[in-house]
């Protein structure tokens, strides 16, 4: 199949109905819940070639993923997202059933409505309409839909991308539909993400009676000195696209229930979200230097272990960034700001294969009780994705 062909005339795809159907699938990670089955039926009927890709590792559940492509030529635009959702919590606290897809007060309620079945419904509807109406348009549209984003992200996007590379499906550009807008639809595009690096620092001493401290070696003051010291370090000042890197202490534990015994061990944990001013290696060296300095001053047996969570990355402003920015402005009248804030997303894996951006609906109710998206917000998101496709393929 070379390029896009005109299919039989049909009424426009309805993103509201698609989203309701997706919400009604109980696709809580790692369960597929019927969401990918539903999408595959829609896309196959429209001429997309669909591949169901199931991956697992030792001690992990099977993860079901979907790759679907229309067309075989370049340029190749991929929409990426996930249909797995976080658990709903106490369902009795929801105003409407979390897997009901109920419309009330012009809002669609349900787990995943915001994060991110709403965006999936919008870009699927946009693509379905485009391939039905476009004639002799060059290029390919594809979807990378995983069921493993809200969990360990081991058997989802990472392995689908590997499969895509092996089978000649690497896209030229990718748009991830994560909810990116904090105040109003269209206000933010994510052009990158900060890196994430976690540390566990352990100081071993010697337990003793609190009345005889000289008989022991209390690790608490040593570790406390280190935490105070490293917390006050200005890691960097940030740059044009990134806020300053920050360090957040997440745990300080000695596992000691007694009030008259000094412990033998103290353990602290902290996380650094870092900009392109640093690499994991430079940050490991920074933390180790402060640990060494406190050890030199106060002694103790120190162990510093680092865990790399995500690489920092950025898609530099250029043609693709401008295309998506202009598409958003065309539809909403808002010029979206370019941001690298927030946590991690599967875009961190895509960036190793092609330029990637994130744009989706508002993120104000993601993971919350009564998660929802406005009906008009969903329709407008669909129009934005349609405009992205039109601009990308020269419409």
Helix-strand category: alpha+beta
Give me the Rg, rounded: 24 Å
The CATH top-level class label of the largest domain: Alpha Beta
Q: Hey, roughly how much beta strand do the residues contain? A: 15-25%
Number of helices: 9
Mean pLDDT: 94
N/C terminus separation: 20 Å
Which descriptor suits the 3D outline? elongated
Largest beta sheet: what is the strand line-up? 1-2-6-3-7-18
The stretches of 5 or more residues where confidence is low (pLDDT under 50) are 4-9
Helix percentage: 25-40%
For the record, the CATH architecture of the largest domain stands as 3-Layer(aba) Sandwich
CATH topology value of the largest domain: Aminopeptidase
**Biggest sheet, open or closed, and with what strands and sense?**
6 strands, mixed
Count of domain modules = 2
Order of helices and strands: HHEEEEEHEHEEEEEHEEEHEEHEHEEH
The CATH homologous superfamily of the largest domain corresponds to Zn peptidases
Q: Write down how many β-strands occur, each being a DSSP E stretch of 2 or more residues.
A: 19
What would you note in describing this structure?
The chain folds into two domains: 15-193 and 312-392, Aminopeptidase (3-Layer(aba) Sandwich); 195-310, Alpha-Beta Plaits. Helices cover 29% and strands 24% of the residues. It is built from nine helices and 19 strands. Strands 1-2-6-3-7-18 form a six-stranded mixed sheet, with helices on both faces. Helix 3 crosses helix 9 (375-392) and helix 5 (220-231) crosses helix 6 (280-298). The longest helix has 19 residues, at 280-298. 45% of the residues are buried.
